[in-house]
Design a protein that fits this description.
This protein has ten helices and 14 strands. It is of the alpha/beta class.
């Protein structure tokens, strides 16, 4: 049987993932698929709200939000039943993916799970409280799980192509202020266990602004934290589309972020960042960038992969304002200023 990437056909469908972080982590697999099939027609089906992450990708012939037309092979990246069922209904004869959730019979080729990626649960007692945490026998980055679907092993950095309207969007949102931009992303949709305290984000903003004269920009979704900012700052929480968020991130000299979608966006946009980890693991889902500085403190209960901390949140509160601010200032001093590609 040929490896998944050596498709013997001309029309390929990629069923993409549904979350921002997963989308960025599967981008190297799409690049590998194109390298293995230089003459194929490759269509990528994704949710409409993620289309801007793919629409200018040169490795794709089209980006769609519903499956129409004929395809010979489907590479199914989500683990859901629905994503596999879509390809069956579309009568795609070759359907490749992990066994996922109750869908083994829907696939024609099942990619075996890497043994160390199957977690188990461990009961621990810490600080007088007993709880269960998820444990992975082997910490292998998720990018390799995605690469295996297309039969590849070598990764390349993810990349987002913003398109010709990026400059106009940047000027509309940010104007022509020459100060270096320090972007803050204090939210995390997964749960509070991934969020460094927002008052500490605010303290870092004040500290870095006083030391560097940078322009602070606060980013996030409608439900993310908002707090007082230094004079001349810009609050864009809940006010940007996904494309606009990417444009602002691209203009930033450095980003401070929790382990969440914008962290991965910054990696794919080649933006320096300081990423804060507590309940999760950078070995599994860290930013795919050599311009990322990951900060975390070794505590016995981390990573636990829980949405809410059952004890005292020590994994995050152990990270100090001074420690984080110093990492930001080092990046600000060593990163060249933003220059428009136009």
């Amino acid at each position: 049987m040929p490896s998944p990437a050596s498709a013997t056909n001309n029309r390929i469908l990629v069923r993409a993932t549904n979350w921002i972080g997963d989308t960025i982590m599967m981008m190297p697999a799409v690049t590998a698929l194109r390298q293995a099939n230089p003459d194929a027609h490759i269509a990528l089906r994704c949710p409409a709200h993620l289309r801007d992450l793919w629409r200018h990708n040169p490795h794709l012939n089209e980006v769609i939000t519903e499956i129409t037309g004929h395809y010979d092979t489907a590479y199914i990246f989500p683990n859901s039943f629905r994503s596999a069922w879509e390809t069956v209904r579309a009568r795609i004869p070759r359907r490749i993916g992990y066994r996922g959730h109750w869908r083994r019979w829907l696939l024609t080729q099942i990619i075996p799970d890497f043994p160390g990626e199957i977690p188990h649960y461990q009961t621990v007692t810490i600080a007088g409280k007993t709880f269960r945490r998820k444990v992975f026998p082997t910490l292998r980055h998720q990018v390799h799980r995605h690469l295996a679907i297309v039969g590849a092993s070598q990764t390349v950095p993810p990349r987002i192509w913003l398109g010709p309207d990026a400059d106009a969007i940047r000027i509309r949102l940010l104007g022509n202020d020459p100060r270096p931009i320090f972007a803050l992303n204090p939210g995390a949709a997964f749960g509070p266990a991934k969020r460094w305290p927002s008052d500490r984000f605010a303290s870092v903003a004040e500290y870095v602004h006083a030391a560097s004269g940078c322009r602070v920009i606060l980013l996030g979704g409608p439900n993310d934290p908002v707090f007082p900012l230094p004079p001349g700052s810009l609050n864009l929480v809940g006010q940007t589309t996904l494309l606009e968020l990417c444009v602002v991130l691209k203009a930033a000299r450095v980003l401070l972020t929790n382990d969440t979608g914008p962290m991965h966006l910054a990696a794919a946009l080649d933006v320096p960042q300081v990423a804060l980890f507590g309940s999760t693991s950078p070995e599994l889902t860290g930013p795919l960038s050599d311009k990322a500085v990951v900060l975390r403190e070794p505590v016995t209960c981390a990573p636990c992969f829980l949405r809410e901390c059952p004890i005292d949140f020590r994994c995050m509160t152990s990270l100090t304002v001074e420690q984080v601010a110093d990492a930001i200032l080092r990046l600000l001093r060593t990163t060249p200023p933003f220059r428009s590609p136009s």
